[in-house]
């Protein structure tokens, strides 16, 4: 793998993972403590669109890596384990970023129910059309 692809991929994966951690924190722990959140609002006003460009760049990098991997496989050349691991890690980060807040609400429903803001959270969920049991 060319060094520029490795370095750019590493930077995009780390930046996207940091964004994912921040957004998941807002959708879970901060919501439990403070009530419904406008997820990403404070972050976008603090740093602008910059943090949100990393996932878009990561998707472009994944497409480029898919092409590189496909070409190597078609030429019957080996793909080193590091390339596979970075590609898989990038996919995992993109999938985690794509999970909606409703997913986290369902995973941590016991925390939401026991939250001091449970009433607000219930009204918000109903307002957003969260009808699933």
- Specify the helix fraction band: over 70%
What would you call the structural class? Answer: mainly alpha
- Give the tally of structural domains: 1
Strand and helix order = HHHHHHH
Q: Major β-sheet, in short?
A: none
* Number of helices in the DSSP assignment: 7
> End-to-end span in angstroms?
47 Å
Described by its quaternary structure, the protein is single chain
Low-confidence stretches: none
For the CA atoms, what is the radius of gyration? 19 Å
Percent of residues in β-strands: under 5%
Mean pLDDT: 87
Topology, please?
Blueprint: H1 3-34, H2 41-47, H3 50-74, H4 81-98, H5 101-107, H6 109-113, H7 118-127
State the main characteristics.
single chain; 133 residues; mainly alpha; 7 helices; 0% strand; elongated
Short account of what is shown:
This protein has 133 residues and is mainly alpha-helical. Helices cover 78% and strands 0% of the residues. It contains 7 helices and no strands.
Structure description:
The chain is mostly helical and 133 residues long. It has one domain. The protein contains seven helices and no strands. The chain starts with a helix and ends in a 6-residue tail after the last helix. The model has no long low-confidence stretch (mean pLDDT 87).
């Amino acid at each position: 793998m060319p060094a520029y692809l490795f370095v750019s991929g590493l930077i995009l994966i780390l930046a996207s993972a940091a964004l994912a951690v921040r957004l998941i924190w807002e959708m879970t722990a901060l919501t439990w403590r403070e009530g419904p959140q406008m997820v990403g609002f404070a972050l976008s006003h603090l740093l602008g669109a910059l943090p949100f460009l990393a996932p878009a760049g990561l998707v472009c990098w994944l497409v480029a890596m898919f092409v590189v991997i496909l070409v190597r496989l078609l030429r019957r050349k080996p793909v080193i384990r590091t390339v596979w691991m970075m590609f898989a890690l990038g996919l995992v980060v993109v999938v985690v970023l794509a999970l909606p807040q409703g997913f986290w609400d369902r995973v941590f429903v016991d925390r939401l129910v026991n939250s001091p803001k449970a009433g607000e959270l219930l009204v918000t969920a109903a307002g957003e059309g969260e009808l699933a049991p």
